[in-house]
Amino acid sequence: MNAPATSSTAMLPLLPPGDGLAAAALRWLCDPRLDTSQSAPASVPLGAVLEAAIDAKLVCLLAHRLLGGPPDASLSRPMRSVLGQIVRANTLHNRLHRGEAVRIVRTLTGQGVPVVVLNGLAYDTALYPPGGLRQFTDIDLLVDAANRDAALDVLAELGFTQPGRGTHTRRRTTGDALTPTVSIDITTGLGHTADPADVRAALARTEAAGDGGEALPVLAPADALAHALARLAARPRWSSLADAARLALAASDSSLEAVAAVPEPLRAGWAVLRGHLPDLVPGPPPAIGGGPGREEVAR
User: Fold this and answer.
1) Three-class SS of residue 1?
2) Are 237 and 7 in contact (CB under 8 A)?
3) CA quadruple 240, 245, 248, 250: dihedral positive or negative?
4) Burial of 172 (0-12, 13-18, 19+ CB in 10 A)
């Protein structure tokens, strides 16, 4: 994902209307609040929920919540088995990608190239409970534009020599039956800015996020929220809504003030977030403190 493009966003599908039963179930999945009594909408058949969650790339989060729900959730034994297999498979997928990211980041930083892990892997590491709940297909890495060629050279040294979907995407085969390839996307812009000075400032503000292993560099909270809201505005997706909701709920007052100071596209992303989770974000970015982060209750 390089600098945000707006010309094609009109062709992209929007989030489903808020009145649909399936949308109600997806909103339940996107809402990260610590309400353990909250159950899936009873009016929506499980089959419809499962189909909607698969299409929205939230099926692992659905499996996690259903398997950790009340004992009377009326899940059949085969259904519990399938849901468990889905989560375990994605856990292994994410673990392999995390190992590759650690290897790449270690090499880049060893050569003096600042780098940040973005999007799916960063969110899985910093926002969701352990267990492979955030689904993603590749590893997004942010570098300064001046270091992009150096980053691509490092990828080649580490075996990422196959071209990917984008100009600055590289892949390599792994020999793993579950995840046969790993794809790396090198970007030099964030969702809300492609200004090299802004990117360098964000790289200088990075934080370390880990899950017991070697930490990965991720965006500071205010930068992460701004990036997520801009991406949500440019390409509204349920998985992006879930990410932005967790970031907004965990944001400090200063982070929200920083977001509010930039009118667009962050306000547009906030409008999408507010439109689908009005109880979570009742207005434009005022003070919202606290949040679940990695401590969200495993349901």
Assistant:
1) coil
2) no
3) negative
4) middle
Per-residue 3-state assignment (H helix, E strand, C coil) for 227-274: HHHHHHHHCCCHHHHHHHHHHHHHCCHHHHHHHHCCCCCHHHHHHHHH
Q: Quick one: residue 112, left, alpha or beta (phi over 0 = left, psi -120 to 50 = alpha)?
A: left
Counted residue by residue, the chain has a size of 299
C-alpha distances (whole Å) from 7 to each of 10, 183, 185, 187, 244 are 7, 25, 21, 19, 23
- Between 267 and 172, residue with greater pLDDT: 172
Nearest-angstrom CA–CA distance, 278 and 195: 32
Cα angle: 64, vertex 69, 73; to 5 degrees: 115
Identify the CA nearest to 60 among candidates 119, 135, 130.
135
Kindly list the strands in the beta sheet with 139-142, ordered across the sheet, starting from the edge strand earlier in the chain: 116-118, 139-142, 181-187, 169-173, 162-163
What are phi and psi for residue 35, nearest 5 degrees?
A: -105, 90
Instruction: Work out the average pLDDT over 170-187.
Output: 96
pLDDT of 8 reads 36
What pLDDT, on the 0 to 100 scale, is given for residue 23?
A: 84
pLDDT at 298 over 60: no
Q: Is the peptide bond before 292 cis (omega within 30 degrees of 0)?
A: no
Beta-strand runs (E) in the chain = 116-118, 139-142, 162-163, 169-173, 181-187, 207-209, 216-218
Q: Distance (Å, rounded) from C-alpha 286 to C-alpha 270?
A: 11
CA distance 12 to 35: 33
State how far the Cα of 130 lies from the Cα of 37, in Å rounded to an integer.
21
278: its two tokens: 């009005």
